[in-house]
């Protein structure tokens, strides 16, 4: 059978979702964040192909490609549009000099040695570097994976294995994960043994899928973004039964039961929140035409909410007078969105070299803070 990193990921996360997707061929509900990722990838693919052809593109070429792809996507909303445009623009602006691109959106279909299975997929970009061929994979999500998570990536390992099959041997196989939303790149290097292990796992999983007789649901956090959740009886039952957990005493020392209940509730809560947002959006659309709506015993309307801000120079002067000391840097911080908006306007009137220098200087001044987050990752058997 044909197997890919995407298929394996779907199988690992939920076998019922795999059945809905690949066996029943069930239509999927559109997810804006996934659609935006496709649009961004399309724009960068066009730039990558220009580079592979020996051309020297400009950032504007990528932005124009983004606009064109967005127009045909069916997406809407200024915030969403701006998110994608910023990811494309910032990434291309940072490419100085341009990389040596061997191929963009490289499709592959290779035999997994010793099996009848075929490994398929598409690699976002393949660069030719001093270390040899390098896999480049774009991500548009919000989460920042750890180095260990990137190093263990089955997708990157299978992509590198595909390159090895299509091209020539190398001492090592570098791969780079580009987190477009955060301007972060994480590079790992794999050995031939790493690639062989990934291929073996892909083949074993493919056989496991072929032999499967049952497709149990895995109710959890992923349900919130599952395009099949409205057709999944396990998800529907979980949302109905979620109230049973409230007030239930925790079994002392039974961490397995505690962890399982936590993960089930996390999935239910995320799924319910997603559903609430969908319902709320439908009501918001109707409120664009009427001042308020009375339905289901509720009244819905847009209310004005006050927020307070202080004019910077006057406030600093007042506080300095009262305290007798310089308080400027105690109170001043500049929001990222405001800096970017001002810089964007300035760059329209500046020569290209000055605009580039401004952006570089701002990036050098910016401070990125990372906070630890509580994570729960499913352990593979």
Summarize the structure.
The chain is α/β, with parallel strands linked by helices. It is 50% helix and 14% strand.
CATH architecture of the largest domain: Alpha-Beta Complex
Q: Which percent range fits the helix content?
A: 40-55%
What is the alpha-carbon Rg in Å?
Answer: 25 Å
Major β-sheet annotation: 6 strands, mixed
Counting DSSP E segments of at least 2 residues, the number of strands comes to: 8
Number of helices, counting only DSSP H or I runs of 4 residues or more: 14
Number of domains: 2
Q: What is the element string, with H for helices and E for strands?
A: EHHHHHEEEHHEEHHHEEHHHH
Stated plainly, the CATH topology of the largest domain is called Lambda Exonuclease, Chain A
Mean pLDDT: 85
Query: Which segments are poorly predicted (pLDDT under 50) over 5 or more consecutive residues?
Result: none
Apparent shape: globular
**What share of residues are in beta strands?**
5-15%
Report, as a whole number of angstroms, the end-to-end distance. 23 Å
Helix-and-strand structural type:
alpha/beta
CATH class of the largest domain: Alpha Beta
How would you describe this protein?
This protein is α/β, with parallel strands linked by helices and 381 residues long. The chain has two domains: 2-211, Lambda Exonuclease, Chain A (Alpha-Beta Complex); 217-248 and 255-327, no CATH class. It contains 14 helices and eight strands. It has helices at residues 5-13, 15-23, 32-52, 59-71, 78-93, 147-151, 154-166, 192-211, 233-241, 255-287, 312-323, 328-331, 336-349, 352-365; strands spanning 2-3, 101-111, 118-129, 132-139, 173-179, 184-190, 292-295, 298-301. The mean pLDDT is 85.
């Amino acid at each position: 059978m044909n197997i890919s990193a995407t298929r394996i990921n779907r199988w690992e996360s939920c076998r019922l979702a795999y059945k809905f997707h690949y066996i029943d061929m069930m239509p999927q509900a559109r997810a804006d964040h996934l659609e935006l990722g496709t649009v961004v990838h399309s724009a960068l693919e066009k730039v990558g192909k220009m580079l592979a052809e020996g051309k020297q593109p400009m950032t504007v070429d990528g932005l124009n490609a983004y606009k064109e792809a967005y127009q045909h996507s069916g997406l809407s909303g200024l915030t969403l549009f701006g998110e994608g445009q910023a990811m494309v623009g910032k990434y291309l602006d940072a490419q100085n000099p341009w990389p040596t691109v061997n191929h963009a959106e490289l499709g592959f279909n290779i035999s997994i040695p010793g099996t009848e299975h075929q490994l398929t997929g598409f690699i976002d970009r393949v660069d030719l570097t001093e270390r040899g061929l390098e896999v480049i994979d774009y991500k548009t999500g919000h989460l920042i994976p750890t180095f260990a998570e990137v190093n263990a990536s089955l997708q990157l390992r299978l992509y590198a294995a595909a390159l090895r099959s299509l091209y020539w041997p190398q001492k090592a196989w570098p791969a780079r994960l580009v987190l477009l939303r955060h301007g972060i790149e994480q590079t790992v290097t794999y050995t031939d043994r790493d690639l062989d292990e990934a291929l073996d796992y892909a083949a074993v999983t493919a056989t496991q899928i072929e032999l499967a007789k049952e497709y149990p649901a895995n109710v959890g956090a992923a349900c919130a973004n599952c395009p099949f959740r409205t057709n999944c009886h396990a998800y529907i039952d979980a949302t109905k039964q979620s109230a049973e957990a409230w007030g239930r005493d925790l079994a002392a020392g039974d961490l397995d039961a505690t962890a399982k209940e936590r993960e089930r509730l996390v999935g239910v809560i995320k799924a319910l929140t997603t559903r609430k947002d969908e319902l709320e959006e439908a009501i918001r659309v109707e409120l664009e035409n009427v001042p308020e709506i009375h339905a289901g015993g509720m009244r819905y309307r847009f209310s004005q909410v006050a927020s307070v801000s202080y004019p910077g120079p006057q406030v600093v002067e007042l506080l300095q007078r009262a305290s007798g000391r310089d308080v400027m840097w105690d109170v001043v911080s500049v929001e990222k969105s405001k800096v970017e908006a001002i810089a964007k306007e300035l760059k329209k009137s500046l020569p290209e070299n000055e605009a580039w220098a401004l952006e570089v200087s701002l990036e050098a001044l910016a401070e990125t803070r990372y906070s630890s987050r509580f994570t729960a990752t499913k352990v593979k058997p």
